[in-house]
Amino acid sequence: MKQFFTVFRFTFLDAVRKKAFIISTAILLILILAACMIPRAIEWFSPDSSQANEETLAFSSETNICLLDESGAIENAEGYLSAAGYSVKKIDASQSEDAKKAVLNGDADAFIRILKGESVPEACIFIKDFMHAPDTDAIRNQLNGAWRAGELEKSGANQEILAIVSASVPVYEQALGSMDLTGYTFGIIASMLMFFAVYFYGISVANSVAMEKTSRVMETLVVSAKPSSILLGKCAAMGAAGLMQMAGIILYGVLMYNLLVPEGTMIFGMQLSFAGVTPVNLIVIVLYFLLGFALYALLYAVCGATVSRIEDISPALMPVSMISMVSFYIGYFTSIMGNSSGVIEWVARYIPFCAPFGMPFRLLNGSVTVDQCAISLLVMLLAIALVSGLSIKLYKASIMHYGSRLKIKDLLKR
């Protein structure tokens, strides 16, 4: 055990002192700060509505629409739009430019201009941009309903017919799952961070082993420590460094969010919600990171031990890198596509190489049960036990070999 902690301490201190570790941490902290500053910056630079023209701002707190009917063909357009919940202000032709300015300044959500067409009136809906647009389909439906009702009334239709034409079937949308925009976004971020952490820290293990072997430091280590202690100590040290970095970044992100992001911030019309980010989910995600890293780090360490020159490290890492990338894409795409059954979904949940990349998303969006998580973690533990035994054997066989890079079949013969 003393040999394990000696290797652990040396590798851990070497990892956290490297420029790559320090620079990557600083870049992530800056990106988090910038992301948290965006809502506050939008609030700072938003126009002060109290200084706008009172004539233009005669609106309620609902969707604000300026309406100009130059055709005179849709007499009840204001009534239909108001009944649908819009705050409508009728204007004349001389105020059209002011209405456009109101839309650009954010004082109005849309400006509807109705023109006379050849057989039916035409309507143009002016919006600021695609990010600041009301539901134009709903507005279109209301205008069509108002025009049809007016034409039917002119044709002598009675009130019962007009009521039928004006009525619509109420359709409600209710989500049975717990997925929302925030959980979906943070689930994607968590899966991607998991992949990059496992991938880059795993490669760091391989590079560390390869550097020590090519510089002949490994010969000294082997004399003073068992190969199994070296392998496990290095993997544990890099995992601890990665976990420390991730924990620091998460705590920093929480602090910046609480300090900088205004309460009630909306994204695409939906309020930020962290209902899926519970302490239990965070603990399970950390477990997936540790187990996923352990699984891949053991394989990467063996790959690093098979080379005699540092220039050969990339080809040696290719098989494990391909496995990690394919596994990530399986876990990632089955998550964002919302598959809940099938062979690929089963693979993404329970195959140890895929589970670290797909399960964090599912945890944050409530699409897996406690039993499924428990089975997935148990399978990963069993896989790590098998891989660690095989990796230690291969590591012992390759660590003192110099010359041409050993192939897997040659390692197994030793």
Map the helices and strands:
Blueprint: H1 2-17, H2 19-45, E1 64-69, H3 77-83, E2 87-90, H4 96-105, E3 110-115, E4 122-126, H5 136-154, H6 159-166, H7 181-214, H8 217-224, H9 227-260, E5 266-267, E6 270-271, H10 279-305, H11 313-336, H12 343-350, H13 355-364, H14 370-398, H15 408-413
Parallel strand pairs: 1-2, 1-3
Antiparallel strand pairs: 3-4, 5-6
Q: What's the overall average pLDDT, rounded? A: 79
Work out the count of structural domains. 2
For the terminal residues, how far apart are their CA atoms? 26 Å
Q: How many H/I helices?
A: 15
Low-confidence stretches: 48-61
The total strand number stands at: 6
Fraction in beta strands: 5-15%
User: Which sheet architecture does the biggest sheet show?
Assistant: 4 strands, mixed
- Molecular shape: elongated
What is the gyration radius calculated from CA atoms?
31 Å
The helix fraction, in percent, is 55-70%
* Quaternary organization: single chain
Instruction: Walk across the major sheet and give the strand order.
Output: 2-1-3-4
Helix/strand order, N-terminal first: HHEHEHEEHHHHHEEHHHHHH
Structural class: alpha/beta
What can you tell me about this protein's structure?
The chain has 414 residues and is of the alpha/beta class. The chain folds into two domains: 2-41 and 178-413, no CATH class; 55-166, D-Maltodextrin-Binding Protein, domain 2, CATH 3.40.190. The chain has 15 helices and six strands. Strands 2-1-3-4 form a four-stranded mixed beta sheet, with helices on both faces. A two-stranded antiparallel sheet has the order 5-6. Strand 5 (266-267) and strand 6 form a beta hairpin. Helix 11 packs across helix 12 and helix 12 crosses helix 13. The longest helix is centred in the middle third of the chain and has 34 residues, at 181-214. It is elongated and about 100 Å long. 31% of the residues are buried. The model is unreliable at 48-61 (pLDDT under 50).
